[in-house]
Amino acid sequence: MRTDALSRNDWIVGGLALLLVIDLLFLPWFSFSFGNISVTTTATGSFDGWTAILAMLAALAVLADLLFERLSPETTLPNFGGSRTATRFRLSVIAVAFVALKFVLHIHFSNFSIGFYAAVVIGAALVFSTMRLSQDREILGTTTTTTTPTIP
């Protein structure tokens, strides 16, 4: 595998997409307490787990699209919106939309656990990152060095 084909922006987007998948699959999203008994469940294992599964598939599609473009450039994939970066942006919006739908179906903040809050942060970062790249901008911006003029 040629990792030199991946830029810093690619690592950020791929990492965020992978983190969202891990969050949806393994982190506790809901916690319920019944006396001394506490039960937690993941996003895919809870009520309306289909929303998390669809969000996970969209995040995996972002990751797969990125890897196909960088590691196998001769492979042509369909794009939506005119470019691969626009396609990844739309896929990340779809992933976050399904996370939001899961939230709407379970509005009760006392039951949400760390996985939900992490998904909100990761999802927002994923959409922001892919939006910046679809606009042909750097994710973290460029660092500019300013020099102060010297007075002779």
Mean pLDDT: 85
Instruction: Report the β-strand fraction as a percent range.
Output: 5-15%
- Straight-line distance between termini: 54 Å
Q: How many structural domains does the protein architecture include? A: 1
Biggest sheet details: 2 strands, antiparallel
Describe what is shown at a glance.
The chain has 152 residues and is mainly alpha-helical. Helices cover 56% and strands 9% of the residues.
Main traits of this protein?
152 residues, mainly alpha, two-stranded antiparallel sheet, 2 strands, 56% helix, 9% strand, elongated
Give a description of the structure.
- The chain is mainly alpha-helical.
- Helices cover 56% and strands 9% of the residues.
- The protein has 4 helices and 2 strands, in the order αββααα.
- The model has no long low-confidence stretch (mean pLDDT 85).
Please specify the SSE layout and strand pairing:
Elements (H helix, E strand, L loop, with lengths): L7 H19 L1 E7 L2 E6 L6 H23 L12 H22 L8 H21 L18
Antiparallel strand pairs: 1-2
